[in-house]
Amino acid sequence: MKRRTTKKIMVGNVPVGGGSPITVQSMTNTITKDIGTTVKQIKELEEAGCHIIRSAITDFEDAKAISKIKKHINIPLVADIQYDYRLAIESVKNGVDCLRINPGNIGSEIRVREVINICKGMGVPIRIGVNSGSIKREYLEKYNGVNANSMVESALEHVRLVEKMGFDQIKISLKASDVLLTIESYKKMSEIVDYPLHVGVTEAGPIWNGTIKSAVGMGSLLSMGIGDTIRVSLTGNPVEEVKVGREILRALGLLKEGVEIISCPTCSRTKIGLIDLVQEAEAKLRSIKKPLKVAIMGCPVNGPGEAKEADIGIAGGKGEGLIFKKGKIYKKVKEELLLDELVKEIEKL
Questions:
Q1: pTM for the complete prediction?
Q2: Largest CB tally within 10 Å, which of 59, 97, 138, 206?
Q3: What letter does residue 195 receive in the DSSP assignment?
Q4: In the CATH scheme, what is the code of domain 259-348?
């Protein structure tokens, strides 16, 4: 699919926009100043495939912890700032790779300029984030409430403010918990600016509902070529956000890394414990980085034929199964050995 052309910025050593690979982000839910716990969670997120991580900076202890946290992690760190411009400045001094702020809610233009000046000097970009709940009253009144027009206009005010100060190292987010509003807002903004867009459905909810809302909203935008970096917002372990984000990208052919499992929904023809088999396979194959399509099918009917586009796969029978490669049967294996044999063959590819 053709992606929208955007300006490229650097978040640490990770490019965002300008045709760079779409990155997956998440946010820690630890107390940032608890360095050990925060580092542990970021390491888990790195292992899951997170490209950029964000942490809330609520006081000066959090800001000062940034330099210590960065010594132990491998991905860029974004400081999430609300209201206090001094925390933004302190975060940059401590080596943060990006700020997430709304320039309009950190005070006077003098304060905003102080933040912009240190970001310029340190080469730190800014994400201007506007949510449906943070729209200025002026635009709510002008556009009759929360809608794409009021969201976009509110964000553009912040953009124009930093542009006036000679700063253009920004990315923009326009998140709402309403999927259709999210889609409409990003579409509108993409027609106005060429800055990279950070895409997400905010406060999407618990893992099950939030995954569906995120897949629909973000998948729709990404399929139109809109979006340079993404964050799935779920109420739960942030590792799940990364897993969902990567699967959304993989489903659209935007991530060429790791194993994609194809599996059938099961029916009365299934004579093996397919559901357990798929769950075990997910866990065993998660660490493989090579891009592979692996089929795990319940019977020969849904096996080599329907899943012939898979690089490798298995098709269950009664107490046994077939291993096939590119639609051609490779060998027959007892059911209890199927998964181990599949993993061995995958490691040979």
A1: 0.88
A2: 97
A3: S
A4: 3.30.413.10
